[in-house]
Every structure is written in C-alpha cells, then in structure tokens.
Amino acid sequence: MLSELKNGPKVAGVKQTKRAIGDGRAVRVFLAEDADPRVTEPVEELCREKGIAVEHVPAMKELGAACGIAVGSAVAALVH
To answer: Where does the Ribosomal protein eL8/eL30/eS12/Gadd45 domain lie (predicted)?
Structure first.
C-alpha cells in the first residue's frame, strides 16, 4: 500500500491533499492514525463526499517516510 505512495505521484500535507481532492486529482488518500483527529477527520469526510478511497497508516513518521520527507505527515494522497 505505501509502496504505491513511495513510487507514484503524490502530495503530502493537509492543504495540498485537500486541493488535490477538490481538483479531482486524488486517487487514494492516506491518513496517519496517530495524527490529531481535528486534522484528519475533515479530510476523511471530504473523501467520503467525493468517493475517494482512504487508507489508514499507523504512524505519521511512517507516512512521511513513504512520501520521501524527513518529518511525519498526517495526510498524504496518491494523485494522477
């Protein structure tokens, strides 16, 4: 699941992910389970509204590493 994120086109962070969802570019969204729900829940709701698949990742650090960044990420998306 995270290997697709490592190798494919992606965005990381809440703002970029919300923009990708709004633009119709997000294919799948990844949410870190240890992130603040105030950050992840609005993104998850937006995905439900738009019919975008959501994957849960155990840790922000793991999600950030999959995105190729040195810090954790609460939200990321695979885009086309």
So the answer is: 11-77
